[in-house]
Amino acid sequence: MQKFDSSMMDFEERVDIDDFESEVMERIYSKPLLIKRVNTTSQIAIVGANVCPVESLDYEVPENELVNEDWRSRRTVQIFQYILLKWAFALIIGLSTGLVGIFNNIAVENIAGFKLLLTTELMLKHKYYKAFAAYAGCNLGLATSAAALCAFIAPAAAGSGIPEVKAYLNGVDAYSILASSTLFVKIFGSIFGVAAGFVVGKEGPMVHTGSCIASLIGQGGSRKYHLTWRWLRYFKNDRDRRDLITCGAAAGVAAAFRAPVGGVLFALEEAASWWRSALLWRTFFTTAVVAIVLRGFIQLCSTGTCGLFGEGGLIMYDISAAKVVYSTPDILAVILLGVIGGILGSLYNYLVDKVLRTYSIINERGAAVKILLVIMISLLTSICSYGLPWLATCIPCPADASTSCPNTDVSGNYKSFQCPPGHYNDLASLFLNTNDDAIRNLLSTNTVKEFHISSLFIFFVAVYCLGIITYGIAIPSGLFIPVILAGSCYGRLVGRLFEPISKLDVGLFSLLGAASFLGGTMRMTVSLCVILLELTNDLLMLPLVMLVLLISKTMGDMFNKGVYDQIVKLKGLPYMEAHPEPYMKHLIARDVVTGPLITFSGVEKVGNILLALKNTGHNGFPVIDEPPFSDAPELCGLVLRSQLLVLLKGKAFSKDRVLAGNKVLRKISELDFAKAGSGKGLKLEDLDIQEEEWDMYVDLHPIANTSPYTVVETMSLAKAAVLFRELGLRHMCVVPKSQGRPPIVGILTRHDFQPEHILGLYPHVRFQQ
Amino acid sequence: MQKFDSSMMDFEERVDIDDFESEVMERIYSKPLLIKRVNTTSQIAIVGANVCPVESLDYEVPENELVNEDWRSRRTVQIFQYILLKWAFALIIGLSTGLVGIFNNIAVENIAGFKLLLTTELMLKHKYYKAFAAYAGCNLGLATSAAALCAFIAPAAAGSGIPEVKAYLNGVDAYSILASSTLFVKIFGSIFGVAAGFVVGKEGPMVHTGSCIASLIGQGGSRKYHLTWRWLRYFKNDRDRRDLITCGAAAGVAAAFRAPVGGVLFALEEAASWWRSALLWRTFFTTAVVAIVLRGFIQLCSTGTCGLFGEGGLIMYDISAAKVVYSTPDILAVILLGVIGGILGSLYNYLVDKVLRTYSIINERGAAVKILLVIMISLLTSICSYGLPWLATCIPCPADASTSCPNTDVSGNYKSFQCPPGHYNDLASLFLNTNDDAIRNLLSTNTVKEFHISSLFIFFVAVYCLGIITYGIAIPSGLFIPVILAGSCYGRLVGRLFEPISKLDVGLFSLLGAASFLGGTMRMTVSLCVILLELTNDLLMLPLVMLVLLISKTMGDMFNKGVYDQIVKLKGLPYMEAHPEPYMKHLIARDVVTGPLITFSGVEKVGNILLALKNTGHNGFPVIDEPPFSDAPELCGLVLRSQLLVLLKGKAFSKDRVLAGNKVLRKISELDFAKAGSGKGLKLEDLDIQEEEWDMYVDLHPIANTSPYTVVETMSLAKAAVLFRELGLRHMCVVPKSQGRPPIVGILTRHDFQPEHILGLYPHVRFQQ
Questions:
Q1: Per residue in A192-204, pLDDT tens?
Q2: So what's the ipTM on this one?
Q3: In chain B, which among 229-268 make CB contacts under 8 A with chain A?
Q4: Interface-testing mutation among B74, B273, B279, B281, with chain A (most A C-beta atoms within 10 A)
Q5: Are B717 and B756 contained in the same domain?
Q6: What are the residue boundaries of the CBS domain, all occurrences included (chains A, B) (predicted)?
Q7: N or C: which end of chain A has fewer CB within 10 A?
Q8: What does pTM read for this prediction?
Q9: Bond before B421 cis per omega within 30 degrees
């Protein structure tokens, strides 16, 4: 342990990943793949680690005089208000996410509908080149708008958003991921992106949107526009914000799939790292609100007041018309489907990872290059969508078709395309539709022969490849729909191939194919199962869907991780896994403590604090009581950078080195420590400390968290990691085992538990069990 | 800290609840309500605390030389085998629970069917008194058998079993709750009890049965019958057993309700205290197996090979035929239904609690009194079921009835009872049926006028009261079915009353009524919602079911706790709540440390260990290293009673006080520490230590857990409780803050965190926030 004094100014060399200043964050965030950890003090350079500078979140409840004082002053009615507000927030999140979901759907259906109508009209007049120009032109315009929004306003809005939300709920606040600009771009970028005909979904973006809405609501209005309400400051802490964002993520899924229970389970199984029963209930309430909003609007729109938004709007693939009967050959077919689906799903993950690595190098060359990439992919998509249907032969319309054939509407089966009257082009029914309608067509039951095997094969290959190369370009892009699209096409293909021996409807095979792909890429189980059931309204398929999901997840897990985990890793977010790595058992907590430690006295000189804040990026400082305040040096508690800044701004200084707790309590209240949204907190530059105040003293006791979680230095690293992860800590104090030494050995943060850090220090432990 | 020596023999006075010897456990377990905590050393007697002697479970992973040695020796193929076995166990649990579920249903349907057929036949011959004698006689015989099984073989099998399973998964092993005798009685007692016409369900017992099966499988065969397999010893620890029992509980719900997803969610929301994603998946697999087994048998039985087990078998109330349309007046009606349902549900909890307290006093008077109580309730039930239908007037059969009317079959609507041809008795259709069939009749759709309002009212009152007075008698009795029965009758009644203004089918109202009662008593949300949907096969009701559940749970929470939590409390099981009580913030860890602490040296005299084991009931002892083994006294680790017994049995003693780790490692392996099922471990009496060995030394280092979780004595009790709960600890070491003191202040167990203990020590903190 080294006490801080001005002679020790070599701290700049130490770069703690936790501790980048926010001005460098943005610059570095855009190129996470190229950063190497510089760690000059410990003389170890970790090469190849994907490090991204981010803030950790404070989930721990601090216990200090200020907080206790504040609790004592809260009256019962205030606590009741607080609880009521929590539920009001859940209601607001549900309402707004539901409304955004409706808006998104209406906008996409109308824009894409207009585009498809225009194309179809030109096709009917046999103006094929003009039709292509109109189609590709519309796509290009929409794609460029989406890309421009992403590139210039909010780069963080690109991609799915689920990995970032997942990381946030694990305690990692990636830069500007929940900002209002991100929300804006996510909503409109997603609308333009989906309407532009890309093989992307609106589900991931909806989850991200829900989370952004929740985060903004939890931030208690906007200080910039003087829209704050004093009461909301009680919610300005990371714990309450985490709860709200969990609700938001669940609401997003509920709005995207119209699956309220599935939304809750998604939040539980995939998004959240910590869970408790009270939150389950609140999340359930939020998704119930979403379900009611959606139902209301769908009833409203069923009267035709929403333009081209009609039945094809909110995805809901009702397959309950098909009779579910199956016997042994069907089950064998389904098992085979699950095995191959799992392998294809994990291959999808592998390829997405490779493409993302390439794109991240391309994208960092600037906004123009980003947009150019989007334009290229858009052109390629348009060429595929318009060009490939020419490969299909025209099929005579079936006599017993339930819908009109050929069809010149916006959505639906049996597209006419270039075919003569009385015939339809099956590939066009898949390509020249929105993704939602294409899935509906693939899942349609009692239409065995509608799609040729060759057409299904072409569509499958095209969609599988387009899905892979589209994710990672600078537009908001969900992964669910591409995977469902490819999966349901694969399932229908398998169903056609097994037609001679299986009695199961190809529409049901299609559903199982989608399940197998989802299981193979996302690696969820219960939530996917419930989402699929809610989507298709057919509970009788439950055993088969479970079977397929189990098989495909098992197959996928043999090869690689789930796609969201992969992206979290790729982005370099320091995610804390639920289980410690096996080799951690062979290390002890002291082994991973690095760098010099800076501690403060219980009553510290203002100058020392300022220097420490300026010269290091540390976010937590141990406070040590020394004589005369105690008999021997002992650990009094832990102060956070953010708390110190508030304390210094309050200027409760004294001339002498004395306890001045009351003075501090009079000047500052707990509410002053309310944590602002990321990047908006008090900064060192905001302080205005006079020269003469540098030599004054400030009492840290009132703000020090007197109950930090500690581990003895000889605690096995695995058990320390369990403690850190289960309690959602930001800092963990390592204390000495033997007596007569300074009362603290070091502080561990989540970065110290990252495999890259540990294996950098001890490369040989990797192969120990 | 006091070192143990023979001059300190006053330990007998100290009664630590954690530490009752097993011989007193049984005696005291049967009267949990009357025990007062005797705590003479600390001079505090806690009056009125309901204390039940139980074992705590060891979920913590020990880290010591032996374990590390063992890990090093395991080869990859062994780890693979271990994982494979886990899945094999899940498969076996699913299969056996499914089979037991089927067996249970077939048995109940046949026994109850025979009884009802006999009664109906005598009724048709107008031999009304004989019919009653036959009916009541059958009931009485079955009830007495169930009660005798419970009273003489396994008292732990009485009741639902869900509270005990919930407590087990929280770390509390109540005596013989998962024994094989309990399993046997639970299966047959439940069959007899349900067939005897009691207002009890088979759902709680199924959950308990699933858990028992899982526990027995996890125990690795039977030592008594030499059916052990060496490999299974790897599963002989509380962590793996907890996982298996979670799977078992989920399988139980899946088998009882044919609701695989609902089963997983039940285990997640209600049963389990800790959860992780890997377990979610395994549980999902188990319930999928159950679903497949059930489906297979139902197909088999549909050919008529299962006797009277037919459509009425496994409960499945398909209401998807009813059209779900609702508007504002319906929603208002539903809200009102939810509010009143929630209040009635919490009143149910209140009354069950009162009745249980009375019964527990009656039941402790011996087996004969227990059986007498069962006989009385059985007679009362028979009188109600047979007598009350006479109050109903005969109703002419409707012309458009889809089933035969009047009906003289075992199950079904439109029972003829005493009515003339062409008429039916609506109350008899409810009373003289199995509970499952009565629910099916209540939930039947498109049959608005079938039941008179007065009949519904009579049935509701009777079932509500019978349900309350039946729970707690000495038979296995589930709570789900009584609540669903009363709730669906209540819902149908409300539906009839709102008929003029509401368009919703009364069958759907009935479902919502059941939901409101379930929400009001059980206080679950997502799992109930999914179970109800899987039961009724109608996803379109989802928003309304969610709404009702939310309202009724909110209403119920205003008055009291959920019924299972209430029973856990009543049984005096030291359940660790997820959140610390507010007043714990005002105490520190040192405040609740009580009693003298016994510590061992790193190399300790055999005699001292024997004395400590004999004279105290402590289960964990800190090991302190002293000079010459270290520079100053320091905490080396923690040993458990069970480990010490194994170590002493191994007799790795030495004449001198020297480190002898290798000697110990040669004599004992990690597998010797495999934990047997509750009550089956090594006992002090099994040791055979010679007089001369008392003065020899034994090295505790190889078995001491060197990484126990510790808290500093000044840590706030609230945060210590969070640590204890989240990590599932059994012992937590409290270490001193200042230097120069002995290295450990005390040990906290789950009992030290119980409100009774804390409020006994500090009654005044209760009112602090």
A1: 999 999 999 988 9
A2: 0.86
A3: 260-261, 264-265, 268
A4: B281
A5: yes
A6: 704-767
A7: C
A8: 0.87
A9: no
